[in-house]
Amino acid sequence: MENLSGLRVSKRRYRLALLSTGILLVVALGSSFASRAALSLAVESCRLNSTLTGAAFPCLKVVQKPQPLASYAILREPTHKERTILTPLADVSGIEDKRLLVPDAPNYFLDAWNEWSIVMGDHANRDPWRDAALGINAASNRTQDHLHIHMGCVSSSLKLALNSHAADIGAEKFQRINTKSAWRSFWVRFVSADQFENINPFQLVADDVPHARADMENVTIGIVGTSRQDGQQGFYLLAEIFGDNDSYGSAEELVDPKCRL
């Protein structure tokens, strides 16, 4: 009888999860991403379903960690199914959230890098150390007020720009480079692969890019995998202050979600 009772409770919880998830999903999709809260609704449906049933739907994956701020989900954008994003389960509005700059802040970029293979699908032949890219938009250039990192491959124009300036990009400090790409003027530095777990890109940009800390809501950040001529693997850390030097690049112009190289 106890087993039967437990089974009934589990079924009720499962039905409740499906109903709740369905309601939230309908609301999120009904907003067609026109509402700046649509992503938050979709993420909440994933969190609820994961908590009650262990399933990630409608997300691709949900990772719950002891530190609530570090928990995250991977999903396709509801109205842009080719775009894959990583987003925290917690209510984090975006790059301007001051919790991203505290010493024990989660490294969402590291999580996105570790989950990058989810994006690949039919592109399993892509080399992350040559092709992978991650990006987050400035608050002044986004459509959703829930932090999310775009995942995919570096666009051909940015890849060409970075390769042409490779000799100028060092590991000691950010260098400003000008290009003919959508990112007309941005800051960039090299971070070795073995250092990536020990740095926080948000903090590094806030501390080392001129005027960034006081203007984080207008900062766009990108991460691009690279393998240098000496064989050292690592990342280009890009930062742009939106509008500075007439540069208005976005995460979407850095990251090609379909990996069309």
From TrEMBL:
Q: Which GO terms describe its cellular component?
A: plasma membrane
| Subcellular localization | Cell membrane
Example of a GO biological process term: CDP-diacylglycerol catabolic process
- Record keyword Translocase present: no
Q: Which domain of life is it from?
A: Bacteria
EC no. given is: 3.6.1.26
What membrane topology does the annotation report for this chain?
Answer: Single-pass membrane protein
Catalyzed chemical reaction(s): a CDP-1,2-diacyl-sn-glycerol + H2O = a 1,2-diacyl-sn-glycero-3-phosphate + CMP + 2 H(+)
Q: Keywords assigned by UniProt?
A: Cell membrane, Hydrolase, Lipid biosynthesis, Lipid metabolism, Membrane, Phospholipid biosynthesis, Phospholipid metabolism, Transmembrane, Transmembrane helix
Q: Which residues form the signal peptide?
A: none
Q: What is this protein called?
A: CDP-diacylglycerol pyrophosphatase
Q: What is the species of this protein?
A: Rhizobium miluonense
